[in-house]
Amino acid sequence: MIGKQDPVLTTERLELWQPQQGDFAGIDAIYADPRTLEFLGNWAPSPADSFARLLRNAGGWALYGYGIFCVRLKGEAQIIGTCGVFRSYRGFGEGLNDVPEAGWIVHPDRWGQGFAGEAMAAVMPWFDQTHGRQRVACMIEEGHAVSERLAAKLGFVEYARHQPDDGAALVLYERT
After folding, report:
1. Which of the residues 87, 137, 153, 160 has an alpha carbon 20 to 30 A from that of 127?
2. Which helix (H) or strand (E) holds 124?
3. Under CATH, domain 9-132 is a member of which superfamily?
4. Model confidence pLDDT, tens digit, residues 114-166
């Protein structure tokens, strides 16, 4: 069974759902794969971190009416990614505090199949129609060429860079 909730968005191949109680294992499986972390900064998430992410994602929907979607292939139960526009507060300023932020993560077993682009091509127009066209930010670890190309395709342009004390440089993008 996929879930009790109907998908919010569908594409040719995908269903995008608001996070549900039963989505923890699927989210944790994405972050348990070390390949996922290659461009996600200097951290090693635990199952507790995945659980907190599930709660944060669900909470964003409750507070703002938008957030991260769980992404599945049509008719399948397994989560293959998380994509969407969520409310963030990064804490380092530079236009990333208390703003809508776009993000996409796909399980490494599904890389190279265009799923992040397909999901985000559905998410961005939905967000604009539902919440009005507004500035949306995103950040990508420098050198993540695939995500940089997707950001450009979605209309994001670089506006700044941020160098954390303990990690790789981040390229900051916005779509206004």
Report:
1. 160
2. helix 115-131
3. Gcn5-related N-acetyltransferase (GNAT) (3.40.630.30)
4. 999 999 999 999 999 999 999 999 999 998 999 999 999 999 999 999 998 87
